[in-house]
Amino acid sequence: MEFITSPPSQSVVAAGLNEQLSYINQSMSTYIADSELMKLNKTAKVGHCFEVSEELFGLIKQAKAVAAQTNNAYDVTVGPLVDLWGFGPTQQAVTVAQLTRWKPPTRAEVDTVRAQVGFDAVTLHQVKQCVTFAKPVQLDLSSIAKGYGVDRLTQHLRELGFTRSLVEIGGEVFAQGEKPRPRPWLKAQPWQIGIERPNGEIQTIQSIALRNQGVATSGDYRNYRESKGQRYSHIIDPRTGEAKPKTLHSVSVVHESAALADAWATALMVLGEHEAKQLAKRLQLKVLLVFESKTDQGLQTWASDHFALSNLDP
Question: What pLDDT score was predicted for residue 5?
C-alpha cells in the first residue's frame, strides 16, 4: 500500500480494517446466528416488509440485477438445493468413506426442494428500504458478499489516504492504483494477478493486469462430489435444481466492482460455456473461461473481447 502523505500507524490501519470486517460479518454472514441477514431469514413474515440496513439492501439489489440479466440462473435463495446436493455448511466435514458412498439426489427430491427456492419471491421496496418474501425463502449472499467486503476494505483504505493497495478475501481481489515501483525512475506497472489452473494444484493458467479493478473466479475444481465416474460441483442451477457435470471448469470476471465480479463469476458458471460466452458478448463483460476441450486437447481458455482489452496495461 502507498499513502499520499504520511501514513497512519500499522495498528490504526489494522484496527480499522478489522472493524470493517466485523461489520460486514455481522450484517451478511450466514454463520453468525444473530447477523442482520439471519434475522431477516428467521423472522421476516411472508407478505410483511422487513426493514434492513442500507448496505444489506444495496447488496440484495445488486444480486437482483444480476439475476434479472441471467434469467434467474443467479439466485441467492439456492441454499436448500446446495444442502440437498451435499454442499451445505453442515456437510463439508465428511469422511472419505462417506464421500465414496455419496449418491446424487433423485429427481423427485430435487423437485420437492426446488419449491423452496426462488429469487422472484423476494421484493425490494426502495422508499421504505425493506424486503418482502412472497414465500418462505432463505437468502445466502456468499456469492457476492466476499467481493463486497473487498470493495469496502478498499474504500476504507482510500479514505485513510492510501493510493495503492491490493485487497483479497477468499480469492476475490481489488487492485487500486499501480503496484509499488522497486525504483522511483521505473515506469508504473499495473498489478499482476494469476488465474489458477482448475486442476486442484497451485498452478497459473494466465496472468492478468489490473489497475483500479476487481477480479473474481468461480470454479468446480475444489468443492465437488463424485458418483459413478461423474463429477458434480457445488455450482447448482436454481432453474433446474441440478448439479449436472459440465465442461466449463472456471470463470474469471474483471469488473470495477469486486462484488459484481463475484456475482457474475458464479452466474456464468451456472450458465455454462455456451450461454456464458453469449452473455459476456452481449453485456460486454470482461470474462475469461477455462473449459474442457471437446477434441481431447486438454484445458482451453476463451477471453471476451473486453477482457482481452482490459489485460493490455489498463
Answer: 57
The secondary structure of 20-84 as a DSSP string is HHHHHHHHH-SSSTTSHHHHHHHHPPTTS-EE--HHHHHHHHHHHHHHHTTTTSS-TT-HHHHHH
- Tell me the pLDDT tens digit for each residue of 59-108: 999 999 999 999 999 999 999 999 899 887 655 555 444 556 788 899 99
Please identify, in words, the CATH class of the domain defined by 22-142: alpha beta
C-alpha span between 27 and 282 (Å, rounded): 34
Distance, CA of 298 to CA of 295 (rounded, Å)? 8
What distance in Å separates the CA atoms of residue 67 and residue 33, rounded to the nearest whole number? 26
Q: What is the pLDDT of residues 171-191, one digit of tens each?
A: 899 999 988 877 776 777 889
**Residue 110 pLDDT grade (very low, low, confident, very high; cuts 50, 70, 90):** very high
Class of domain 169-310: alpha beta
Angle between helices 273-283 and 258-271 (to 10 degrees): 140
C-alpha cell belonging to residue 91: 456437510
Write the pLDDT tens digit of every residue in 198-248.
876 677 888 889 999 999 999 887 778 888 878 888 899 999 999 876 788
Beta-bridge partners for 254: 215, 286
Domain ranges of the chain: 22-142, 169-310
Same fold across 22-142 and 169-310: yes
Distance CA 168, CA 211 (A): 14
* pLDDT confidence of residue 95: 47
Name the phi and psi angles at 172, rounded to 5: -90, 135
- The residue assigned the cell 489485460 is 311
